Amino acid sequence: MRRWALLLLIALSPWAAKAELAVDLELVLAVDASGSVDDSEFALQLTGIAAAFRSEEVVEAVREGPLGRIAVALVIWAEHNRPKEISPWVLVQDGQSAEAFAALVERFPRGVLNGATGIGKAIFFSAKAMTDNGYRGARMVVDISGDGRENPPDDWTLMLSDGRAYARGRGVTINGLAILTDDPELDRYYRRFVVMGPGAFVEVAGDYRAFAPAIRRKLIREIRESPAISRLQP
Predict the structure, then answer these.
(1) pTM as predicted
(2) Residue 183: which residues within 8 A CB-CB, separation 6 or more?
(3) CA-CA 20 to 30 A from 1: which of 18, 45, 82, 143?
(4) d(Cα 60, Cα 205) in Å, to the nearest integer?
């Protein structure tokens, strides 16, 4: 009796570990809001993501997973040491929940982010956002989209190699969507210096008008990637 009473006390304790919901994928969509991205280009990224989650192909890809659900959040990033912005985490498992995330994304404000391109800090922030988010994914992916390369910071900060090292230590895969408007070879840079992890890849958009179909293709591929079944514990 004492043993059961002790177990009950531990379970009800405010310090007890919170239960996490198992999902097929924890996904952060990290969107570039640096100085090279004007307001119309920023809006094209958000409307492109929203359109993708409203597409039947993306919803079907979610449903095809072993658990049929993913957790997704939006991160807005720019200069290395400026604060990042993050949406609430949303559980997507059907058309209704996908629409809820789409509506959140297309209304998400840019805020005051601007300046240089801090990819490494964006990766670190996005990977860290998967800690204590209430979900346990069979896979964890950060999806970085942007139109430029990492800039040298004005002050000490985490660099690209540091952000990747942090993500690697947590088992997070980094995928990239390179927008070639200002740098026709940005996809090569992303492949060499940004993406990492099992099955990591780079999708390409020739310009911001091509972002919507590119992010839809990318999401379908990311969501359908075979998960590590051994980590799935509903």
Answers:
(1) 0.86
(2) 147, 148, 149, 189
(3) 18
(4) 23
